[in-house]
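Researcher: Structure prediction, please.
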Amino acid sequence: MIVGETTCTRVLVGRLEPGEWLHEALLELARLERVDAAFVRGQGIVELVELDLWDPARRSYGGPLRLEGALELASLSGTISLRGGAPDVRLHAVVAWPQLEPGPPACAGGLLARARAVSVELALDVYDDGDLDRSVDDPVTGLPLWRTPRRR
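Model: Predicted structure follows.
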C-alpha cells in the first residue's frame, strides 16, 4: 500500500444541466477552480452511458458497454488527479434501469467512459495541498496508477 497525507480544503457542489457530458464538465470545472487533486461523488439521471470493464487477460479495458434511455445513476465515485501534467478524470459508476417485465431493475457498473446528464448532482472533495499524480503504469496490471501521494 502507498499512503500520503493531505487535508480536504474545499468541497465543491454542483449540478449538471441536461445534455452536459460528465467528464468534459468536470475537466472544465477542474480548470476553472484549479483542481488537480479531488475525490468525486454523485448521483442522478443520465440518458447515455458507456461503461468499461477490466479484462485482466488483456491488461486493458474491453470496450464500452453503451446504454441509452432513462438511466438512474445510482452511484458515482472517482478522482481528479494529474496525468501528464494535466487534470485527468477517472470515474466509476453503477447505473440502473427498469426492466420490461415486472421485477427488480437491471443494473451495470464499471469504469465510466462517457455519460450525458439529464440531471446529475456532484460533490468534489478538493485537496489543494495534496499532490495526486497518475504517473505509474503498473507492470502487473497495465493500469495507470498514482505514484506515492505527498503534500505540496
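Model: The helical segments are 22-33.
Researcher: Thanks, that helps.
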